[in-house]
Design goal:
The protein is mainly alpha-helical. It has one domain. Helices cover about 80% and strands about 0% of the residues. It is globular. The structure holds protoporphyrin IX containing FE (HEM).
Length: about 160
Amino acid sequence: MSKQNRIKLLLDILTFAAFLIAMDPHTSGISIHEWLSIAIAATVIVHLLLNWDWIVRVSSRLFSKGLNGSRANYILNWLLFVDGILIMLSGIMISEAVVPSLGLTLPQNFTWRSLHDLSANISLVLMGLHLALHWNWIASTAKRLFTGGEVITKPMMERKDAQA
Ligand code: HEM
């Protein structure tokens, strides 16, 4: 399997595990909740950069025919992205650990707390759909990662065909 796919999958597994921990701040404690969520934001940026090819490809062909599955996927990914921004923004506005540790005090407002709660709940649904839509890639890459299997890349297959 390509090194890039291995890195992608391991990073995704770590990010997802951290996301599940972040969804339960009362168990982890607020400090872990906030610092871990900031680390998640960093891994999400790497996740986007590692999948940048797909983003550029689908963005440029968004209005062309024959892209139905990818278009739904693309819209869902945008919703997840915007929701993620809302979670982080509202989280920072109600921060009890990260922001005070920087010596800052932000005006407390119940709206930010409700927005944080709502956007976190929405992210759970969107994340479930995101996983479902990418399940083929996740399952096949995980299989190869844990069984040490090799990927037959397209050029290799073409070469085999050419020899036959
Ligand atoms: C992946 C990102 C995040 C997720 C999924 C997430 C999720 C949650 C959830 C589910 C709650 C519980 C809401 C409730 O009790 O009704 C919560 C509470 C909270 N979150 Fe986040 N959050 C994230 C990021 C952040 C960030 C970046 C900060 C601050 C820097 C933050 C600060 C807080 C605070 C202060 C609470 C209130 C805890 C309490 O006293 O009840 N969160 N978050």
